[in-house]
Automatic annotation (TrEMBL):
Coiled coil: none annotated. Keywords: Dioxygenase, Oxidoreductase. The keyword Nucleus does not apply. Signal peptide: none annotated. GO terms for molecular function: dioxygenase activity. CDD domains: SgaA_N_like. Pfam families: Glyoxalase. The keyword Oxidoreductase applies. Residues 10-126, 140-261 form the VOC domain. This is Glyoxalase/bleomycin resistance protein/dioxygenase. It comes from the Bacteria.
Length: 265
């Protein structure tokens, strides 16, 4: 599962690229109760960066868009022990480097890549900052889901790069209609940290994309708050085996999902 510990080859951070960081901070404050702390002021050298916190613990980042034409969206970071070596391995497996390994003084190193099918993701090599201080609790990230038209390519690329394994959510489900999970420990249902969603003509997300899921106490109330704050409902709240979930977007179109986990037992 996703963890706040400095565990390599698992999702360890997310951040949001926004055309208006102040407005985005207000939106997510209304929806999840997050607060924003400025870490890097806006300047001629960059658009600024904020830490988003829940109950005083860091849960995500927020930055202005360096390219005004870029689409506002969430970026998923995978923690790695050696960013340079991982970038080299990614390139040898067909990925493209969008941002080379860059040191964040005193914090760590990052890089941004695009997988062979077009989904963007990032790497984080911890220095002074490991990433999440809280996750898998209410109003924090719970799950990382890859939306793709080519699940077979994803099942080749990411295991080769990070050592991930693929496990069906439900044993015996047909390959064409089942749901596969990312895990490092097959057989342990609590070890899974993400999944693979096949893009079809019927779904609202049509681009190759990593989508974060945030855990919530009440999916329906969260959907109401998203709408009241100016966001969009892409898929209304509905019951599914893991709980009640919905697909949403903020006021600038950045996509995210929510999950109200089903009661255990």
């Amino acid at each position: 599962m996703i963890t706040s510990e400095n565990t390599s080859n698992l999702p360890g951070w997310i951040d949001l690229g926004s055309p208006d960081a102040g407005a985005s901070a207000e939106f997510y404050g209304q929806v999840f109760g997050w607060t924003a702390e400025n870490l890097m002021p806006e300047s001629a050298d960059g658009p600024g960066y904020w830490s988003l916190k829940k109950d005083g613990k860091q849960v995500a980042g927020l930055g202005g868009l360096t390219d005004p034409s870029a689409r506002p969206d969430w970026m998923t970071y995978i923690r790695v022990a050696d960013a340079n070596a991982t970038v080299a391995a990614a390139e040898s497996n067909g990925a493209k480097v969008r941002v080379p390994v860059t040191e964040v003084p005193g914090e760590g190193s990052m890089a941004q890549l695009t997988d062979p099918s077009g989904a963007e993701f990032a790497l984080w090599q911890s220095g002074g900052t490991t990433g999440f201080e809280a996750c898998c609790v209410e109003d924090t990230m719970l799950w990382a889901e890859l939306w793709t038209r080519d699940p077979a390519a994803a099942k080749s690329f990411y295991p080769a790069l990070f050592g991930w394994q693929v496990e069906p959510y439900m044993e015996g489900a047909p390959e064409s209609g089942g749901y596969d999970m990312w895990t490092m420990q097959p057989g342990d249902p609590l070890a899974a940290f993400g999944g693979i969603m096949t893009i079809t003509d019927q779904v609202p997300i049509q681009d190759e994309k990593w989508i974060p899921y945030f855990m919530v106490a009440d999916a329906d109330r969260t959907v109401e708050r998203v709408s009241a704050a100016g966001g969009a409902v892409l898929i209304p709240a509905a019951d599914a085996p893991p709980g009640r979930l919905a697909a949403l977007a903020d006021q600038f179109g950045a996509r995210f999902n929510i999950l109200q986990p089903a009661p255990m037992g």
